[in-house]
Write a structure and sequence with these properties.
The structure is a single chain. The longest helix is centred in the last third of the chain and has 21 residues. The protein folds into three domains: about 260 residues, 2-enoyl-CoA Hydratase, Chain A, domain 1; about 180 residues, Rossmann fold, CATH 3.40.50; about 210 residues, N-(1-d-carboxylethyl)-l-norvaline Dehydrogenase, domain 2, CATH 1.10.1040. The chain starts with a strand and ends in a 5-residue tail after the last helix. Helix 5 packs antiparallel against helix 9, helix 9 runs antiparallel to helix 10 and helix 18 packs antiparallel against helix 24. The chain contains 28 helices and 19 strands. The protein is about 50% helix and about 10% strand. By secondary structure, it is of the alpha/beta class. Bound molecules: 3-hydroxybutanoyl-coenzyme A and 1,4-dihydronicotinamide adenine dinucleotide (NAI). 3-hydroxybutanoyl-coenzyme A (3HC) binds next to strand 5 and helix 3.
Length: about 700
């Protein structure tokens, strides 16, 4: 049963019980209407309470039903809400913990609402590329006021129940209970008190106006426009709330419905729903059961206070965990701590961090030059120079001093984690934690599972990742792991595009129009062109058969390493990030092209984008086939959260599926005819060929 019916004196209680968040799936909807009928048929019952078991009132419509027939099966959510609103006996919603989406819409259909303090209340549909589709855009403005309701609907952000209850004139909550524990009893008392009240109050009957009328909505549209690029749902939310102020309730609901259905079919919503599921799936590891006992992580040590070590430490300080930072020399330690301090002070200045929180975080930070001081830490993350010899020394020391059971993590971006693990006598405790720079900002964390990494270490670091608000994706051991291994092919292809006739700005513009946060050349300027240069130099000796465009090497030979030197593919003015095209670089690209005897050709934006994105997709297919990534959706998450791939396209793998793998393969075969590319570049991954032959896709 996904909802239970009980009777307490004159009050019937319908308790939603559909873990994990009481999603309003078909069975639950049916159970609610059954309960309503039973209560109305029972003359001893005078009022009805609807509440939720477990950790939510309700997280809304069951997302897993979207795109299936079940979502529409009667009673659909709108019919359930109508049945509540039209009930002959008063219905009270007793709300706690989480009340979101369809869950809030259901509560708005009730005649009375009592909420526990601390409950997260939201209409988050916009985050799935939708608008609330069960009356939320029509009822919330009536209950809360047009402006606060529109803000909630357009942002999708959750607000605490007690904050909403303080809004002047609000009719969303009739009462906030004294505590979460007293909610059930107070809901019963309220239900008894209003049992005989008639007529029953309905949110739909409340007035809905904004004093500035349509002028306000024009203002709202202008505000939303920037955020709405590539995400059509936001402007539709404004339209729907405006409809609430202009149309009858019934017509407003129809307008909302039509837009909801259209958005549900949009590629943007499909992509965002894919990412919602993919993010949650990424945290699960097939052979690591959900109930694997976790190691207790209460304190951290970080080795190396450079670019990465400082940022990594901040993540844990932010989460309230003490961190001990170790360096070789006092001045390096002082420099690292000063940067952490400066980062926090900048946040305080911008009003993003309160002074007392800043002090609290800094008080959790301590430092040392001695490994002996690390022995109490539950987990240590190494972020020293990227040299195997240095890593060996560090892991020998860690093996010597860390307590048994401590997790030993490396932030290496290119080295073999198996080798690093074998520098210790406890390879089962060693794992890769590949943070992205700036480590205190970037959401992605690649968790690198070495051959011997213990299952409970994997389970623990996935849980730690959640605690520090990172989106973790598991990668096997290989050169570059998932993300950088793919980006290397993308970078190679970007170089070929220059050799054939493009300018860096033309490539970047095409890719940014597609939706990437940054094109490949701006991204390389940000990361530092010297980093990919070092990788290429390694490749030239390891894999001399692999072809690269030489333009990037020529650029580096001029010392144009990117933003940090004020010059890279573009020029930069100190303190600013704007990329200013440089005529000498464009001439250097042209000269190199000429030296190869290539007559430049005009390459269209579509070809630029396809060649770059399919470079990612082909390498990803190898990665999947080799088991480096367990699921295609993990790769999508890595690219959206770590590499600026446009979220509204759902990641490279979903994009390839949407284009159709047959078409992807055809395009690759066409690109392979180009005599200027590396002949092997477009050799399709066997997995891609197989999926096309079987008529399947990645996801
Ligand atoms: N339907 C079905 N399952 C849901 C769900 C929903 N609405 N919301 C969350 N879940 C599932 C997740 O998939 C996950 O499942 P898993 O354990 O199998 O991976 C599980 O609940 C726990 O989710 P989280 O890991 O996100 O747990 P948290 O405790 O961190 O967060 C939450 C809970 C705040 C409810 C968060 O899951 C969330 O924001 N959910 C989305 C809520 C939402 O978007 N609701 C609107 C749905 S659309 C709608 O209602 C349409 C209507 O207007 C017609
Ligand atoms: P960095 O050069 O900024 O910092 C390294 C720090 O380690 C220096 O402060 C140095 O004094 C210290 N150090 C060196 N040897 C040490 C030792 N034996 N004991 C204690 N401290 C020692 O380097 P960065 O960029 O922070 O990189 C660190 C690691 O993170 C490398 O493995 C790198 O590959 C990896 N990484 C770097 C990323 C980046 O964008 N910079 C991204 C992801 C991973």
């Amino acid at each position: 049963m996904t909802a239970h019916y009980t009777v307490n004196g004159i009050v019937a209680v319908i308790t939603l019980d559909n873990p994990p968040v009481n999603g309003l799936g078909m069975a639950t909807r049916l159970a609610i209407t059954d309960g309503l009928q039973q209560a109305q048929a029972d003359s001893a019952v005078k009022a009805i309470v609807i509440t939720g078991a477990g950790k939510a009132f309700s997280g809304g419509a069951d997302i897993k039903e979207f795109g299936t027939d079940k979502a529409a099966v009667e009673p659909n959510l709108r019919s359930v809400i109508l049945a509540i609103e039209n009930a002959s006996k008063p219905v009270v919603a007793a709300i706690h913990s989480v009340c979101m989406g369809g869950g809030l819409e259901l509560a708005l259909g009730c005649h009375y609402r009592i909420a526990a303090p601390g409950c997260s209340v939201a209409l988050p549909e916009v985050k799935l590329g939708l608008l609330p589709g069960a009356g939320g855009t029509q009822r919330l403005p009536r209950a809360l006021g047009v402006e606060p309701a529109l803000n909630m609907i357009v942002s999708g952000e959750a607000i605490k129940s007690e904050m909403l209850a303080m809004l002047p004139g609000q009719k969303l909550f009739d009462k906030i209970s004294a505590s979460a524990d007293s909610l059930a009893a107070e809901a019963l008392t309220l239900a008894q008190a209003i049992a005989d009240t008639r007529p029953l109050p309905r949110v739909r009957d409340l007035p809905c106006k904004h004093p500035q009328g349509d002028g306000y909505f024009q203002f709202a549209r202008n505000m939303v426009k920037g955020m709405a690029k590539n995400f059509p749902a936001r402007l539709k939310c404004v339209d729907a709330v405006q409809a609430a102020t202009q149309k009858s309730f019934e017509d407003g609901v129809l307008f909302e419905r039509e837009n909801f259905v259209n958005l549900m079919l949009s590629p943007e919503s499909r992509a965002l729903r894919h990412l919602f599921a993919a993010e949650r799936a990424a945290s699960k590891i097939k052979d690591v059961p959900a109930d694997t006992p976790l190691r207790d992580i209460k304190s951290l040590a970080v080795i190396g206070a450079g670019t990465m070590g400082g940022g990594i430490a901040m993540n844990f300080l932010n989460a309230g965990l003490p961190v001990k930072l170790l360096e070789m020399k006092q001045d390096a330690l002082d420099r690292g701590i000063a940067i952490i301090r400066k980062n926090y002070e900048a946040q305080v200045k911008k009003g993003k961090l309160k002074q007392d929180k800043y002090e609290q975080r800094m008080s959790l930070l301590s430092s040392t030059l001695s490994y002996a001081d690390l022995s109490a830490a539950d987990m240590v993350i190494e972020a020293v120079f990227e040299e195997m010899g240095v890593k060996e020394k560090v892991f020998n020391e860690l093996d010597r001093v860390m307590k048994p059971g401590a997790i030993l993590a490396t932030n290496t971006s290119t080295l073999d984690v198996n080798k690093i693990a074998n520098f210790t006598q406890r390879p089962q405790d060693v794992v890769g934690l590949h943070f992205f720079s700036p480590a205190n900002v970037m959401k992605l964390l690649e968790v690198v599972r070495a051959d011997m990494t213990a299952k409970d270490v994997m389970a623990t670091v996935m849980s730690v990742a959640k605690k520090i608000r990172k989106t973790a994706v598991v990668s096997g051991v290989c050169d570059g792991f998932i993300g950088n291994r793919m980006i290397e092919q993308y970078g190679r292809q970007a170089g070929f595009l220059l050799d054939e006739g493009c300018t860096p700005a033309q490539v970047d513009k095409a890719v940014e129009k597609f939706g990437f946060a940054m094109g490949p050349f701006r991204m390389s300027d940000l990361a530092g062109n010297d980093i990919s240069w070092a990788i290429r130099k390694r490749r030239y000796s390891e894999k001399p058969e692999m072809k690269y465009s030489k333009t990037a090497d020529l650029l580096c030979e001029q010392g144009r390493f990117g933003q940090k030197t004020g010059a890279g593919w573009y020029d930069y003015v100190a303190g600013k990030r704007d990329a200013i095209p440089n005529a000498d670089v464009v001439a250097m690209v042209a000269e190199h092209r000429q030296s190869l005897g290539i007559t430049p050709r005009k390459i269209g934006d579509d070809e630029i984008v396809q060649r770059l994105v399919f470079s990612l997709v082909n390498e990803a297919a190898h990665i999947l086939q080799e088991g480096i990534a367990a699921k295609a959706s993990d790769i999508d998450i890595a690219y959206v959260f770590g590499y600026g791939f446009p979220a509204h396209r759902g990641g490279p793998m979903l994009y390839a599926d949407q284009v159709g793998l047959f078409n992807v393969l055809q395009s690759m075969q066409r690109f392979a005819l180009n005599p200027l590319d590396d002949a092997d570049f477009w050799k399709p991954a066997p997995l891609l060929v197989r999926l096309v032959a079987e008529g399947k896709n990645f996801n």
